[in-house]
Amino acid sequence: MLEGIFTGLGTALMPFNIMMVVVGCFAGTFIGMLPGLGPISAVALMIPITYGLDPASGIILMAGVYYGAVFGGSTSSILINAPGCASTVVTSFDGYPLAQQGQAGKALALAAYCSFTGGTVGAIILLFAAPALAKVSLSFQSGDYFALMVLGLTAVAAFSGKGQVIKAMIMTVFGLMISTVGMDTMTGAPRFTFGSVDLLDGVSFLLLAMATFALTEVVMSLMKRQHLEEDQPIDMAALGSMKLSKEEVKEVAPTVARSSVFGFIIGVLPGAGATIASFLAYGMERNFASAKEKLKFGRGALRGLAAPETANNAASTGSFVPLLTLGIPGSGTTAIMLGALIAAGVQPGPRLFVDNPDVFWSVIISMYFGNLVLLILNLPLIPYISRLLAIPRQILIPLILFFSITGVYLVSFNTFDIQMMVFITVIALFLKMLEFPMAPMLLGYILGGIMEQNLSRSLVMSDGSLDFIWERPLTLTIITIAVILLFMPLISKFFESRAKKGIESSVNTGEGG
Amino acid sequence: MIITKDHIGGLVFLCLSAAYGYYTGDISMLPGDEYEPFNAQTLPSILSYMGGILSIALLLTASRDASDRLSFKGYDFPLVIKLLVLVVLFGIALEWVGFLVSTVFFLICGYWLLGERKWKTLLIASVPFALFIWFSLSQLLDIYLAPGRLITMLFGG
């Protein structure tokens, strides 16, 4: 492990990679701050840039953008009550009331400290957890890989919002369908190309990610008229002091400790990302609070701000565990990173630890730097960075659109991709209006190719029989977990209704109390 | 009967799965591939069945709440259509007049569509920006940006 840490240090400390961390954190903070654009869009916007970099620098840049965007999202949540991304929605519950009470500076500083602590604790756990898991997963065979891909796909479906399970599953299948467009990798047969030469290479990952996240998010925010005249100028003088008193530090310290570990664990679970972690951490903290303290939540409680801010950064770090060790993205953002790494010729998974130790270790090491960069550079710069929120949206939106389009064009130099982007954006807009989640589709698309290859290999090896699923205990275990995850919403519904019935019957028979 | 978003989504995906399944039969295979345990049609066939089953499941479990109806109220469609048409035009312009001119055209039109009317702002926020990006890409990063067919036809190149 020590050798690996040194390898990681060597790569992460290269001046170019340090620059990537700094640039990533800044770009992420800025993009994350813009309402409507979250970490997924921010990371998607970086893909064209990473195509010209080596894989280690590419993922370091994207990781920097990721936690920068999570941090930036909280700035807009606190200042203008407009969360930059879903994972900072909870931040606004107590952050915005604090800003309204003239304590915006304190809220921003606390958010920065908590993000730093959550991210650093997460990175320390990652340092020990990832190599151990990677060693175990080195014994994986094609059947196990297939089972893993199934687990990755079902986990996202199971963790999607209430009543969205079938929709998420449909979107996963839709993503898998898109992954079959183009030349079949095994036989070379064209599939669903309808005679078009442009479709022989399939739908590009970059194009799909940009169209469904960057472009669709911007267009959707315009369509909902959340723009222009609604923008409120920010009064920088009203930020107030950024200092925290000793009592306040004492008050939030246990919260930060709890939320760091809790957030990391939630982040590790495939499908549960920073958003779920922040909501759960807030709920947990509220439950820990006394009846008197509970009343403060939602009205500017420091603990209410510290819990989600710590948890979402720890979860962002935690979501790298399944990505780096198993090749399963833990969230939509890491799904994009997985796609970008595959495009760069690096296959995240058990072999990454052995085949590309520089990528594996440098990502982990660069996370410390990233968190430090966010704290050292962003904290004093908050008042200035916040001014970016004052750029008129009628100027900003065409520029974001321009970067999205040219990002795709400069990779292929084919204007067909631009027309295709518009086509996919229209479909994505329609699906969004019907409340279909986009992340499972992207995940299905990314995992589709690898899943098909491993299923094919397993079936050929077992002579067309499905025995490979229950022959190896490992495959069977993973498939069982996948099935449980798939039916989890149904199981939880069953227990909920049973608990409800139990309460009703005890009330009727007078047992309660 | 109330038609909700779930019903529309279910129907759309049912049609998509049916069409996908139909075209699965068109995938060409090598002789004898049909007897292999796995061929180019295997996964698409499984996916079309899965898509069909899930779409029917969505239709059967669809919400019947009136609040889940698809509503276009409050959506600014004309603006979005104009912007998407502008993106298509940008793609066409890239091929004919090259990167620099099409970028200036795209940005000015984009700002204009979103309500910016001051000519000074329109020009300042587009021309220097486009020049900077063009210079960075073509001169600093040495990326070849085709001048455009029209420019080549008029001035050669």
Tell me which oligomeric state these chains represent. heterodimer
Q: Describe the largest sheet of chain B.
A: none
Relative helix content of chain B: 55-70%
In terms of DSSP E residues, the strand content of chain B is: under 5%
Q: N-to-C terminal Cα separation of chain A, in Å?
A: 56 Å
Going across the biggest sheet of chain A, name each strand in turn.
1-2
* Total of DSSP H or I helical runs spanning 4+ residues of chain B: 6
Strand content of chain A: under 5%
Q: What's the helix count of chain A?
A: 22
Spans of chain B with pLDDT under 50 lasting ≥5 residues?
Answer: none
Low-confidence runs of chain A (pLDDT<50, min 5 residues)?
A: 227-231
Give the SSE string of chain B. HHHHHH
The helix content of chain A, as a percent range, equals over 70%
Describe what you observe in this structure:
- The complex is a heterodimer of chains A (513) and B (157).
- By secondary structure, chain A is mostly helical.
- Chain A has helices at 2-12, 15-33, 39-50, 55-80, 91-100, 104-136, 142-159, 165-179, 205-223, 246-268, 274-288, 291-294, 302-318, 320-326, 332-343, 352-355, 357-385, 393-412, 415-433, 439-461, 468-471, 473-509, and strands at residues 182-183, 190-191.
- Chain A is globular, with a radius of gyration of 23 Å.
- Residues 227-231 of chain A have low confidence and may be disordered.
- With 157 residues, chain B is an all-alpha fold.
- Chain B has 6 helices and no strands.
- The longest helix of chain B is centred in the middle third of the chain and has 37 residues, at 77-113.
- Chain B is flat, with a radius of gyration of 25 Å.
- The termini of chain B are far apart.
- The model of chain B has no long low-confidence stretch (mean pLDDT 89).
- Classes of the chains: A mainly alpha (513), B mainly alpha (157).
- Chains A and B meet through helix 8, strand 2, helix 9, helix 18 and helix 19 of A and helix 1, helix 2, helix 3 and helix 5 of B.
